[in-house]
Specification:
With 625 residues, the chain is mostly helical. The protein has 32 helices and no strands.
């Protein structure tokens, strides 16, 4: 008896140690705040928001899941939520598996769904409400098994749960429940053979009929979601694509029940052999042998899981993209720059946010080319080809430029795909205040009042609604109003948009510097030279990359540019092309010159520019649901 108690304690300590280890991994490595930042799980305390979740199967679980997902706003609380979810799932799974003859006490088997869930939680696109739907199915199975000694109550519960579960958690959760109880009924001493067969047939019919009838007569849902509705419809930029881990997570409960049932049958058959029966009796009665073997197996399994699965499944590149975007959004420019430069792969979104961060940090003229500008001018502004995927990025870009009508245009574009994104609603509030439309701003502000984590924003801008004179006293709004073009058309190209901004206000330094960089990125150094008199107003001396471009231009065209270039810049340009000519192969030259010239305008023009590499943006993915 004491040996068994020690065994149970050791196993639980191993499990708790595993969860503690995973908690630290979530907290320090995964960082749940990035999940929240990407998905912005919507939850608003208003009737109209709640009602949209009541008219389709699984909506209530999605609503509850979005509520719990608000904890992801904090790294600590988010990690606690994810690990607690794993723990409660393990407890329910342990109970279910322990009630089968081949499942033992359930310690080993309960690890499987928890491990799969830990892999899913490391996918930044994975919606938390998907877990909640599956967990509700697990709970229904556990209650069904708990009522095994009260057959009438169990059958009543089954009938009620079929429809309740379908409405609360959706058809996929219902199928998990039905598949699990069918397997359980097939191998347990459920009842006599004939009632058991009848129950299995009824469950099979229900698994087909209930989702189909719901689709046909009750709910306005897609035909594709009749039996698979686990993942909610989402826009492309945050859409989770089901993978092997999700399919395994969905199937693990009925599959393990099936394995336990088969193991029990195999064990019964094997014990009929006298030799095996005697051997089993000897080992099962040996003091602690089976106990210690079980502990060793569980410990070894946990170690393998942690080392080979849990801590190697995180998409580090996606994390880099999110980190840069997160720091940029919160104005932590230096952190955004460091995260971008730490990324191992080029990414369009990192490129956009790096450029914004470099400008806002005051490092525009010196650090711009430290991140590879592989798309040239197309990486400078975000809205050439793609639209819905970069709508909020584009809105932020134009807001900073002072092109308020375009910031509003892209905010509406973002709202069309993510209508309850609080970041979009904040942008709409500020843009309407700048345009002198406080009533429209109040509409969006009232929605934000029912959301979490918006208190500071609401407190500040509610005062602007009550006293509109405060709008004209806000330095940020005053600047944006002075920059915004009025009563004019919107050009299609970024160069014409920047020129229009400068036409309305020649003191728009950001527009001027973006236009200057546009010319340099697209090899239009002559046009850059034409606006040099405006650029030099802000610099003494000119940044090195500007001087490199001008020295290169003078060397090729003999243009007369009156500026005292640094001697070391002139010598650097001369050395670059002398060394470049030594290598007949461009790739060899690139490798040779990388150490001394990477991050310079010279290196960009020779090796990274899309004029040289022919790199282009791809057409955007069409939104589909």
């Amino acid at each position: 008896m004491r040996q068994n108690q020690i065994s149970v304690m050791v196993r639980w300590l191993l499990v708790l140690g595993f969860l503690a280890y995973v908690f630290v991994h979530f907290l320090k490595v995964v960082q749940p705040v990035l999940i929240y930042h990407l998905q912005q799980p919507p939850f608003y305390k208003m009737q109209v928001f709640f009602s949209q979740y009541t008219d389709y199967p699984g909506g209530m679980a999605e609503y509850a899941g979005n509520f719990l997902a608000q904890l992801l706003h904090s790294n600590f609380m988010g990690s606690l939520l994810l690990v607690t979810s794993m723990l409660v799932l393990m407890l329910v799974a342990k109970y279910v598996f322990s009630q089968t003859r081949g499942g033992g006490k359930g310690f080993f088997w309960m690890i499987l769904p928890a491990v799969l869930l830990s892999l899913l939680f490391q996918n930044y696109y994975f919606p938390y409400n998907v877990f909640l739907k599956v967990f509700i199915g697990y709970c229904a199975v556990a209650i069904f098994i708990a009522l095994r000694n009260r057959r009438t109550v169990q059958m009543i519960f089954f009938g009620v749960m079929v429809f309740t579960l379908y409405y609360l958690a959706g058809s996929t959760a219902l199928l998990i429940f039905l598949a699990s109880v069918i397997v359980y009924a097939s191998f347990s001493s459920f009842t006599k053979v004939t009632p058991r067969i009848i129950f299995i047939i009824v469950a099979l019919v229900v698994s087909v009929a209930v989702p189909y009838l719901g689709y046909k007569y009750l709910f306005n849902i897609s035909q594709l979601k009749i039996w698979w509705d686990l993942v909610p419809a989402q826009p492309v930029i945050i859409r989770y694509v089901p993978d092997k881990a999700l399919y395994a997570f969905v199937a693990v409960l009925p599959v393990v029940l099936l394995i336990c049932g088969l193991l029990d049958k195999i064990k019964s058959l094997m014990l009929r052999i006298p030799f095996i029966n005697r051997l089993y009796s000897r080992f099962s009665s040996s003091d602690g042998v089976i106990v210690y073997l079980g502990i060793i197996v569980v410990a070894a399994g946990l170690y393998i899981v942690i080392r080979q699965w849990v801590f190697t499944s995180l998409n580090t590149q996606k994390k880099s993209v999110l980190l840069v975007d997160y720091y940029t959004l919160h104005g932590e420019w230096d952190k955004a720059i460091d995260a971008a430069l730490s990324s191992n792969e080029y990414d369009l979104f990192i490129n956009f946010n790096y450029n914004r961060s470099v400008y806002n940090s005051g490092k525009w003229g010196e650090w711009f080319f430290k991140y590879p500008q592989l798309l040239g001018a197309d990486g400078l502004f975000p809205d050439k080809i793609v639209s819905g995927q970069i709508a909020l990025v584009a809105s932020n870009f134009y807001y900073e430029l002072g092109y308020i009508s375009e910031a509003l245009h892209w905010a509406f574009e973002a709202q069309s795909t993510t209508p309850y994104n609080p970041l979009v609603l904040q942008r709409l509030v500020k843009v309407h205040l700048i345009e002198g439309k406080p009533e429209a701003a109040a509409t969006y502000l009232n929605i934000l009042k029912t959301a979490f984590f918006q208190d500071d924003f609401i407190k500040k801008y509610s005062a602007y609604i009550r006293d509109t004179s405060l709008i004209g006293k806000d330095p940020e709004f005053l600047e944006k109003r002075s920059f915004m073009p009025r009563n004019t058309y919107t050009p299609r190209t970024i160069s014409k948009k920047l020129k229009l901004l400068l036409k309305f206000n020649g003191n728009n330094r950001r527009a001027l510097e973006y236009l200057a960089m546009y010319y340099l990125l697209s090899h239009q150094v002559g046009n850059f030279a034409n606006i040099l008199p405006q650029v030099v107003r802000y610099y003494n001396p000119l940044p090195t990359l500007y001087q490199e471009a001008l020295v290169l231009y003078v060397a090729k065209t003999d243009a007369g540019i009156r500026y005292a270039f640094k001697e070391d810049v002139i010598q650097s340009v001369k050395n670059f092309f002398e060394n470049f000519k030594k290598y007949p192969d461009r790739r060899v030259a690139q490798n040779a010159l990388q150490q001394d010239y990477l991050g310079t305008y010279l290196y960009y023009v020779a090796f990274q520019s899309p004029v040289v590499t022919k790199m282009q943006l791809k057409a955007r993915e069409v939104e589909s649901y």
